[in-house]
Specification:
Helix content is 40%, strand content 11%. By secondary structure, it is an alpha+beta fold. The protein starts with 33 loop residues before the first helix and ends in an 18-residue tail after the last helix.
Length: 644
């Protein structure tokens, strides 16, 4: 059987090789009561009569479920989210935490133990077992508790899949009829495989594989006899017998299973004794574990939910490989948390930060932090919060100037008063941060020290619509109005958008769609989403290299000297006029990172707050750690490209 449906091509002549043929017991233990033997005879006779009449009874059942639907039945499965290196970040499921496996991928000891406890004659009966019912009755009577079940594995499967848990004679008859129908249509191995994947093992854990991972932190194929016996002993009341909740009781259940296997001669005396003595190392409950990177996994689930539907993600058994490097993610989360306390007085000056790091070579998101503490706030500022970038938007303007072929970094522009009509009674008069003017300066100098007036003048010369077009080209999707003040950041953007755009500058114009997901496969291993990078050259390489050359000066001698990391780096600060948002977005050839610092209630950060003073140190701390084992790389020079 595949992960989602029964195999249709198995030969009906196939016999199971993992289970020894059960020996019929030659006697019933003498309990000293003739009435018990008499009762046994009566029960067996009555059961045989009932069984013989069920075929005729089945004809009268006109509205029973069609068991043939099991040919296409797909149990709900847990979806798993991994980092780019295959480390598990999170699992996502609805009520049923389940991973489906094939029968051949389950330990023989596990299969024997389950049948010993639940249905030792499974491979010989036709769906019901009158002898088993009688034996279970007397075993439970002698023990004074339920130690064996009377229902067959097939009957239990029917009950779990088709019927309600009510205890009535009519419901039991329906259960028997459906069990017989299933036995007529499906092979024993098919039925047993579906049962083992369907059975509830406690703590929202369904199926043998997920239970094995939870109880013993291993795959079902690797379970020992001792572990198998303990798990088999849990089935009748998994929460009550759970070793997580009552280990002594779980050991008692293990002993019952081992004794039953020895009685059936499915395990030798030596094997049983060794299993009793084997120390058991428990795992942990997996159904309620928290994500290792909650801001990441929630963003991934949102994206996949929009594409495939939330139910498909929660029940479809997807295997989701993200682009995230968990080591970098941990560095990013630690940096954000540490900066919050170290630089911002435990929220006294700024109560939130966000960080996004992207590999310019692939546009894969390598780290994403949406806030200081996910437990305190699940709002993901990295992808959901749109804030004004201030001067961090200016690189789009300067790139447009360089790409026009009319400007180089050494071209000059007048930093002097100017006004523009804006349709109101007062014309728009851009001003610089310090209120002064520098006169005739180079574009390089204007961007290094973040002069506002030259950026606005360039915007009018190049054309605001052209700047909007370039921003759209490199992945800016947020609404943008072509207003005169756009070059100064009069637009609301997310950190993810800015990081992705700067990553395109870092790659000399090569752009792929930024993504958190490498690929997604279904439970059968079929690829249903493939985000292999497909880079396109969308920007002019010379203009991109020229911009990068200028942005290096921002760090070495401009507004972002706090971002120096001891290797070539380029970037731009951003500060809104009201000091409500501070930014630094910068890159090296291997990594582009955006950092935002601000307050959720949009209150000002205080007089003197700047991107260079607030966001740049956070960027520096992250990049130093993130690049610690990365070789130092220099940027390519504009002279290596053809100027437009």
């Amino acid at each position: 059987m595949s992960s989602n449906s029964f195999r249709k091509d198995r030969s009906r002549s196939r016999r199971s090789t993992w289970v020894r043929s059960p020996k019929v017991l030659s006697y019933i233990q003498d309990v000293g009561q003739i009435s018990a033997a008499t009762l046994l005879t009566a029960v067996m006779l009555g059961s045989s009569v009932v069984a013989g009449g069920l075929v005729g009874l089945a004809i009268s059942f006109r509205n029973l479920p069609d068991v043939r639907v099991l040919r296409n039945y797909s149990p709900s499965e847990t979806s798993y989210v991994y980092d780019v290196n295959g480390t598990l970040l999170d699992n996502v499921h609805d009520e049923a935490n389940r991973e489906v496996v094939e029968l051949d991928d389950i330990s023989p000891d596990m299969k024997r133990a389950v049948l010993a406890m639940e249905d030792s004659a499974f491979y010989t009966h036709k769906g019901i077992n009158p002898t088993g019912i009688a034996r279970a009755f007397f075993a439970n009577l002698q023990a004074g508790s339920t130690v064996q079940g009377g229902s067959t594995v097939t009957m239990q499967l029917v009950k779990n899949l088709f019927l309600t848990p009510e205890r009535t004679i009519s419901r039991k008859l329906v259960e028997v009829v459906l069990a017989m129908r299933i036995e007529q249509i499906f092979e024993k191995d098919e039925i047993f495989e579906l049962y083992l994947n369907q059975v509830y093992w406690g703590h929202n854990t369904y199926g043998v594989e997920t239970a094995a991972q939870s109880y013993f932190n291993k795959s079902a194929k690797d379970l020992t006899l001792a572990e198998s016996a303990m798990m088999a002993g849990l089935i009748q009341a998994p929460e009550s017998f759970s070793p997580f909740l009552d280990y002594p009781e779980a050991k008692k259940r293990q002993a019952i299973a081992l004794n039953r296997m020895q009685q059936l001669q499915w395990a030798s005396t030596e094997e049983v004794e060794a299993a009793r003595e084997q120390p058991l190392v428990l795992g942990e409950i997996t159904s309620f574990r928290s994500s290792q990177a909650p801001y990441v996994t929630e963003a991934v689930m949102k994206e996949l939910g929009e594409q495939f539907g939330e139910e498909a993600v929660a029940k479809g058994g997807m295997r989701i490989q993200t682009t995230i490097d968990l080591d970098l993610q941990q560095i990013a989360e630690d940096t954000v948390a540490d900066s919050y306390y170290r630089y911002f007085g435990n929220g006294a000056y700024a109560d939130q930060l966000a960080l996004v790091a992207i590999d310019p070579r692939t546009h894969f998101v390598k780290a994403l932090v949406g806030g200081v503490d996910h437990d305190a706030s699940q709002f993901n500022r990295a992808v959901q919060s749109t804030r004004q970038p201030g001067s961090a938007f200016k690189p789009f303007v300067y790139y447009a100037a360089f790409a026009s072929g009319k400007y180089t970094p050494d071209s000059t522009i007048e930093d002097s008063p100017v006004s523009y009509p804006d349709g109101s009674s007062k014309p728009y008069k851009p001003r610089n941060y310090d209120g002064s003017f520098m006169g005739n300066i180079t574009l390089r100098k204007a961007l290094e020290v973040s002069r506002n007036v030259p950026a606005v003048k360039l915007g009018q010369t190049i054309g605001i619509n052209r700047i909007v077009e370039i921003a759209r080209t490199v992945g800016i999707e947020s609404p943008m109005d072509p207003v005169i003040s756009l070059p100064l950041g009069a637009v609301d953007l997310t950190p993810l958008e800015l990081a992705g755009a700067y990553a395109t500058f870092a790659s000399y114009g090569w752009h792929s769609e930024p993504t958190l997901i490498v690929q997604v496969t279904d439970s059968r291993g079929n690829t249903i989403l493939d985000n292999t990078p497909k880079p396109q050259l969308l920007l002019d390489p010379w203009a991109s290299a020229a911009l990068t050359d200028v942005l290096q000066g921002v760090i070495s001698q401009g507004t972002a000297t706090n971002a120096q990391i001891g290797r070539p780096a380029a970037g731009k600060t951003g500060t809104t006029d009201s000091q409500r948002d501070t930014w630094f977005v910068g890159y090296v050839p291997q990594l582009a990172t955006a950092v935002w610092v601000g307050n959720d209630d949009n209150r000002p950060l205080g007089s003197g707050a700047t991107g260079g003073g607030y966001a740049a140190p956070v960027w520096r701390d992250f990049m130093v750690e993130a690049l610690r084992d990365e070789p130092v790389e220099s940027f390519r020079k504009p002279s290596e490209f053809t100027r437009p």
